[in-house]
Design the sequence.
């Protein structure tokens, strides 16, 4: 096993996030049959899915779970297609603290839903009227089991972990394959970081240079700059490959864009135009570099 692969296994781990939640939706077979029959359609032409509760009932649960997935993806790197992602050791404390806070919010939202479940079902009885069915609603003690939150952390695989009784040549080939796969994954993770930076800077350039239908400067949120600040702050800890060029561009973006004040950009059109031009120039340079990789 190469020292680079060995060091990588010491600097990162794999993390999985699994969040379960009740959809509060179900297919009403009776209504589906009625709709298809009334329109002269085939029995499998469509399905009528009922929203069992008002949209607001699950809003906090969905908001928190969505925020958790966003946080999870922004603080980790792509791995394979099995749901695992790479978590750098340098990000471990920040990641676990952030996820604990979000998990607490999630269960608070779930508990609020369960506490108000009976009244929500009573409201659904009126809202759905003839489509309401008691059997669509699980009892509250079973409903809790429809929700779940789990994060699991495992070590990165390394070639020397492979143990099996085979010939020396076969074992060497398998270990070489594992190491090559690991290096390919790190290359893909590094490209993901390049895309994040390019996308953020390109979006900033587009929004600052954009115009609305009346020809006035397009509206943008403070998060346009805030997102760049956050990304520049987190990239060094996600840059497991130690990509020097990526860090050089990150420093350039941080120097040119991260310190901009949204309020000033809205009031000073010259400053806004200059920032848009600089953002575009940096994005173009990064895109050209990526194309040469």
Sequence:
């Amino acid at each position: 096993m190469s020292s680079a692969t060995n060091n990588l296994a010491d600097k990162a781990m794999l993390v999985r996030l699994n969040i379960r939640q009740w959809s509060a939706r179900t297919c009403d077979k009776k209504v589906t049959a009625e709709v298809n029959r009334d329109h002269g359609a085939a029995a499998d032409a469509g399905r009528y899915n009922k929203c069992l509760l008002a949209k607001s009932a699950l809003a906090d649960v969905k908001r928190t779970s969505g925020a958790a997935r966003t946080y999870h993806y922004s603080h980790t790197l792509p791995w394979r297609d099995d749901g695992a992602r790479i978590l750098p050791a340098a990000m471990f404390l920040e990641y676990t603290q952030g996820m604990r806070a979000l998990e607490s919010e999630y269960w608070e939202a779930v508990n609020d839903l369960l506490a108000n479940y009976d009244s929500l079902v009573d409201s659904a009885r009126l809202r759905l009227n003839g489509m309401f069915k008691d059997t669509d609603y699980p009892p509250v003690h079973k409903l809790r089991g429809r929700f779940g939150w789990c994060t699991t952390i495992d070590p990165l695989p390394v070639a020397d972990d492979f143990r099996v009784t085979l010939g020396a040549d076969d074992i060497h080939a398998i270990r070489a394959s594992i190491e090559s796969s690991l290096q390919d994954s790190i290359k893909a993770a590094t490209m993901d970081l390049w895309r994040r930076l390019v996308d953020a800077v390109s979006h900033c350039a587009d929004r600052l240079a954009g115009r609305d239908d009346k020809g006035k400067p397009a509206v943008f949120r403070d998060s346009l700059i805030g997102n760049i600040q956050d990304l520049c702050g987190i990239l060094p800890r996600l840059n497991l490959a130690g990509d020097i060029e990526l860090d050089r561009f990150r420093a350039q973006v941080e120097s040119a864009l991260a310190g901009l004040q949204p309020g000033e950009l809205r009031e000073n059109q010259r400053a806004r135009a200059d920032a848009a031009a600089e953002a575009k120039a940096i994005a173009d340079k990064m895109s050209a570099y990526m194309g040469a990789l």
In short: The CA atoms of residues 168 and 273 lie 64 Å apart.
